[in-house]
Amino acid sequence: MMAAGTALALALALWLLLLPVGVGGVGPPPIQDGEFTFLLPAGRKQCFYQSAPANAVLETEYQVIGGAGLDVDFTLESPQGVLLVSDSRKADGMHTVEPTEAGDYKLCFDNSFSTISEKLVFFELIFDSLQDDEEVEGWADAVEPEEMLDVKMEDIKESIETMRTRLERSIQMLTLLRAFEARDRNLQEGNLERVNFWSAVNVAVLLLVAVLQVCTLKRFFQDKRPVPT
């Protein structure tokens, strides 16, 4: 038992020493997921570039959460300039690229069809890279699961991976719910402003009609009075 523990400690120390050089120093750093909200002016087009590793999964989702019509044009191009996605005047969309190419992907949002209304756009990028899986497998090979005091490393690795996937999906769903809430709030505020405006117009018209009726009645009765002699 002590020999197995000593071998495990030596293997773990060797893996930790070699990790910054053998794993962290080879290849690009892992791409982080991200989300962004921006204001797209009327008659303008705005593009974003996102670096991606090779042989990964890129999931992009966008949603128009403010502005008249709640629609926008969206295009997605590969690092080689190939048009992968083209959406015309949509309020939201979700697209997946699998596998990805190493390079910069181009995401463009176009509001050139609108000459008056600006749009508030939210989009999110999610990467699912194989690098994490390779690191976990490297850890499992370095520590030799057979010497882990009867603990099944494969079961632990599978449980951690499942938990990570579910947490990422939960974060994504919460972000989408926040985007839906922002869009509904903007829509309700816009409707409230329109209702208040037209209510004020109706009240003004009613008051004007009432004043005109009073003036008309006064003039009518004044004309009917007998002229004194």
Q: Mean pLDDT, nearest integer?
A: 75
Strand content: 25-35%
Total strands: the figure is 8
Strand order of the largest sheet: 1-8-3-6
Along the chain, the helix and strand elements come as HEEEEEEEEHH
- Largest β sheet strand count, sense and barrel closure: 4 strands, antiparallel
Question: What are the segments in which pLDDT stays under 50 over at least 5 consecutive residues?
Answer: 1-29
What is the share of helical residues?
40-55%
Query: Between the first and last Cα atoms, what is the distance in angstroms?
Result: 134 Å
Question: What Rg do the Cα atoms give?
Answer: 32 Å
The structural class is alpha+beta
**What overall form do the CA principal axes indicate?**
elongated
Number of helices: 3
